[in-house]
């Protein structure tokens, strides 16, 4: 994982070199067929495989509002939490491939969960058609205010002094938060106890109330609680500092090479017509270049990085390969 740039970092670098206008010209170089321009003629359902108020839900609602306006139809959020995102994605895989049901996939739900649970009824590559990448955010290593650690080094020392005594919440067994914590345990040489929840929202609530000691949470959903002082951010988990969290250090400063980022992308059921995917990608690209969206997501730490459906497809395959190695090494399995 050392020196490996995230997909968002690579796309962001490209944007800086050639500019937004040039990037947009790639996506809309050829006019779409009349059939795609006639789509949609009714509301679109956007499945969010996690509860309301979590990071995925925040990103989904920000994108849905503008995407609906661009398409001329409402994009209605349908929260389907459970099984670390598997329930919502199963509903997406089984949906009619007509463009009227789409879903927001994440690092945990579509790249890690299938590696942890080999018995899922759907396959991340076979059963979904990539629409477009939205962006990424680092995770934040959070502790409740009662934990006597203000730095990553102090947190590691505390964990080493009391092996297995520190508890950390996750949004579900085998999810991205769990894998991120297991990776930290392995790289830092510590041992903690996982407390799994049904989604990030409940995990954050118990962290703030002091029921658990720590949580590695996507920065996008942790931002308001960090700013309010209800939780303490010890560090971010990416390789670069985030403008949305000035002064917050990186885990890799203390644990060299530690790098985990949450990412978000839109998918449709497999066999959705290519012209519909192209229309959705075109409008998503416009949405992600909207200053309001860039600013809104930037405020909560999301680095926006639009890309083509083909680029998202290749990125998903690379993420699956990367996390599969980590899951197998740590012997992480679904409950």
Query: Could you estimate the helical fraction of the residues in percent?
Result: 40-55%
What portion of the residues fall into strands of 2 or more residues? 15-25%
The DSSP helix count reads: 12
Determine and state the CATH class of the largest domain.
Answer: Alpha Beta
- Output the CATH homologous superfamily of the largest domain: Bordetella uptake gene, domain 1
CATH topology of the largest domain: D-Maltodextrin-Binding Protein, domain 2
- The H-and-E topology, N to C, reads as HHEHEHEHEHEHEHEHEEHHEH
Shape: globular
Question: Structural class, from helix and strand content?
Answer: alpha/beta
Report Rg: 19 Å
Major β-sheet profile: 10 strands, mixed
Weakly predicted, low-confidence segments: 1-5, 12-30
Distance between the termini: 27 Å
Nearest-integer average pLDDT? 88
Beta strands, count = 10
Number of domains: 2
Q: What would CATH call the architecture of the largest domain? A: 3-Layer(aba) Sandwich
Could you describe the 3D structure shown?
- The protein is of the alpha/beta class.
- The chain has 2 domains: 7-137 and 261-330, Bordetella uptake gene, domain 1 (D-Maltodextrin-Binding Protein, domain 2); 138-253, D-Maltodextrin-Binding Protein, domain 2.
- It has 12 helices and 10 strands.
- It has helices at residues 7-27, 34-38, 55-71, 86-94, 107-116, 152-161, 176-188, 200-208, 219-228, 274-288, 291-299, 309-330, and strands at residues 44-48, 75-79, 101-106, 128-143, 167-170, 193-196, 214-218, 232-236, 261-269, 303-304.
- Strands 1, 2, 3, 4, 5, 6, 7, 8, 9 and 10 form a 10-stranded mixed beta sheet that branches.
- Helix 3 (55-71) packs across helix 9 (219-228), helix 3 (55-71) packs across helix 10 (274-288) and helix 5 (107-116) crosses helix 12.
């Amino acid at each position: 994982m050392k020196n490996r740039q995230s997909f968002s970092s690579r796309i962001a670098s490209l944007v800086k070199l050639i500019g937004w206008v040039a990037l947009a010209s790639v996506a809309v170089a050829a006019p779409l067929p009349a059939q795609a321009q006639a789509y949609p003629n009714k509301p679109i359902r956007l499945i969010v495989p996690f509860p309301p108020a979590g990071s995925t839900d925040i990103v989904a609602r920000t994108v849905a509002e503008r995407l609906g306006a661009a398409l001329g139809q409402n994009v209605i959020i349908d929260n389907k939490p459970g099984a670390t995102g598997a329930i919502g994605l199963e509903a997406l895989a089984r949906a009619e491939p007509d463009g009227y049901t789409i879903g927001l996939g994440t690092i945990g739900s579509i790249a890690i969960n299938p590696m942890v649970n080999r018995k899922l009824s759907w396959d991340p590559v076979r059963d979904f058609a990539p629409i477009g990448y939205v962006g990424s955010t680092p995770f934040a290593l959070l502790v409740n205010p009662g934990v006597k650690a203000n730095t990553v080094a102090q947190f590691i020392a505390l964990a080493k002094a009391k092996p297995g005594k520190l508890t950390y919440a996750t949004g579900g067994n085998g999810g991205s938060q769990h894998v991120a914590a297991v990776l930290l345990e392995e790289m830092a040489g510590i041992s903690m106890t996982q407390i799994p929840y049904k989604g990030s929202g409940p995990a954050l609530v118990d962290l703030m109330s002091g029921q658990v000691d720590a949580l590695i949470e996507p920065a996008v959903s942790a931002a308001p609680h960090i700013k309010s002082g209800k939780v303490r951010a010890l560090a971010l988990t990416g390789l670069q500092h985030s403008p949305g969290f000035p002064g917050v250090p990186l885990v890799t400063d203390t644990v060299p090479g530690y790098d985990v980022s949450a990412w978000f992308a839109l998918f449709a059921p497999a066999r959705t017509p290519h012209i519909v995917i192209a229309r959705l990608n075109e409008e998503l690209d416009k949405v992600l270049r909207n200053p309001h969206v860039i600013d809104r997501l930037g405020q909560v730490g999301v680095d926006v990085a639009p890309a083509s459906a083909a680029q998202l497809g290749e990125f998903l395959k690379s993420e699956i390969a990367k996390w599969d190695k980590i899951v197998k090494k740590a012997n992480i399995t679904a409950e």
